Here is the input.
Amino acid sequence: MFGFNQAPKQAATKEIPAQPGQRPVLIRSENLNKTYQMGEVEVRALKNATFDLYEGEFVVILGPSGSGKSTLLNILGGMDTPTSGQVYVQEKELTSFSDRQLTQYRRNGVGFVFQFYNLMANLTARENVELATEICTTSLNLDEVMGKVGLSERADHFPSQLSGGEQQRVAIARAVAKNPLLLLCDEPTGALDFETGIRILELLKEVNLTYNKTVVIITHNTPVGAMGDRVIRMRSGEITDITVNENPVPPERIEW
Ligand SMILES: Nc1ncnc2c1ncn2[C@@H]1O[C@H](COP(=O)(O)OP(=O)(O)OP(=O)(O)O)[C@@H](O)[C@H]1O
Here is the structure.
């Protein structure tokens, strides 16, 4: 095992410095490049991406379609490797991990939330969350997490008996219950109507604060940037801008 998540089993609200730069660095990315060779054509999906992610911060990565957001998220999540450059997670070099180490990292270190919830259709909401916690080492209390995402009453329902927003809540519970170092969310509101999407953003913010989890959202939806502690903007594979929001906007005040 690799000591990725040493936090206690119960949720703890911890005082954290307000400014991202005052928090400990969780992930350091240096000069990340990703090039795809498509026959004669080279696609440079990432160009010299250098940035840090801090413990307990809420980061929104914004960029239009094709700007390299998913490529970046997949590398941070240990699902893909860069063509060159390094990623360090708590000072361990992720980019030199063996396959076995990467599996442990994906299992224990990262909670994934996708646009389409990827739930097991033949398992109840609770069982979907339980399945994820069974294979990892430091999971949180299942019932507490189900309550936190507002699903105590729906825990025995199957995905087909749940609305899209409720299914995304299950997916968030599944990611959080593993008690990972960070949550990586790929267009988490992309399949939801506006109101439901806002509720999901509120839940992600609550998870961020309650469990002091680093949350990274990637989206092309510019207004969502207002809720981040920091916003990383991407275009054509490059990080064009990193800004600190002194006063992040609560999700209920975001409109699109
Ligand atoms: N497996 C692949 N093979 C070849 N090219 C790829 C591959 N994956 C991504 N690309 C290319 O890399 C670039 C970045 O893609 P990526 O999916 O990271 O962008 P994105 O910002 O996440 O886009 P979207 O919001 O549409 O998902 C695009 O030009 C894309 O076509």
